[in-house]
Design goal:
Elements lengths: L3 H29 L2 E2 L8 E2 L1 H12 L1 H16 L21 H19 L4 H27 L2 H8 L4 H18 L8
Antiparallel strand pairs: 1-2
Helix pairs in contact: 1-2, 1-3, 2-3, 2-4, 2-5, 2-7, 3-4, 4-5, 5-6, 5-7
Length: about 190
């Protein structure tokens, strides 16, 4: 059993992390609303991956991953947090964008782990790059399962997004370099 004084310290910290996770989930939900359908692919161009790696980098691996699990639960429950293009609710997780969505907690955690180790330029670029790669790996895996073709999965779900994702990595690196102090970040 935890002493009263330790419990008094733990509850505000837990509450703070829970609120940070909810704020992170809402930030990704807002970014997901900026989505543009692209011709020739069932996957829209969205700002959600940028928000995912920023949430992970800014909140840390645990709180960032918790934020994205919260986001997925909200979307699966039918709340309008996913991009406005595609199937509603839990069905979205089984459709062409489901793999990307399911990879969000992993991407946030990766960005958080790398960012926690320092925010020099190499880490500030590596953190979002690994997160974006994790998102694409999840998306490609789902598209492979749906299409039965690795080359088609990459053509539909990765190649159309390379330029935009490089820009997202650059923007995320600038934000992480400016706003993350690994010694004081929420972990």
């Amino acid at each position: 059993m935890m002493p009263v004084s330790a419990r008094a310290v733990a509850l505000p910290a837990l509450r703070s992390r829970a609120l940070a996770a909810l704020a992170g989930a809402l930030a990704v939900a807002l970014a997901a609303q900026v989505a543009v359908p692209l011709p020739g692919t069932p996957v829209p161009l969205s700002l959600a991956p940028l928000a995912v790696v920023l949430v992970g980098g800014l909140l840390g691996a645990r709180v960032g991953a918790a934020a994205l699990v919260t986001y997925l639960v909200m979307g699966a429950a039918g709340l309008p947090v996913f991009a406005p293009v595609g199937l509603p609710g839990v069905a979205r997780l089984f459709g062409p964008t489901g793999g990307y969505l399911l990879a969000y907690p992993v991407a946030a955690a990766l960005a958080g782990v790398v960012t926690a180790r320092g925010t020099g330029w190499a880490r500030a670029l590596t953190a979002p790059a690994l997160g974006i790669l994790a998102i694409h790996a999840g998306g490609a895996a789902q598209l492979l399962a749906l299409t039965g073709s690795a080359s088609l999965a990459v053509a539909l779900g990765t190649l159309p997004f390379v330029a935009g994702d490089l820009l997202k990595i650059g923007v995320a690196a600038l934000v992480l370099r400016r706003f993350v102090n690994p010694a004081r970040a929420l972990r």
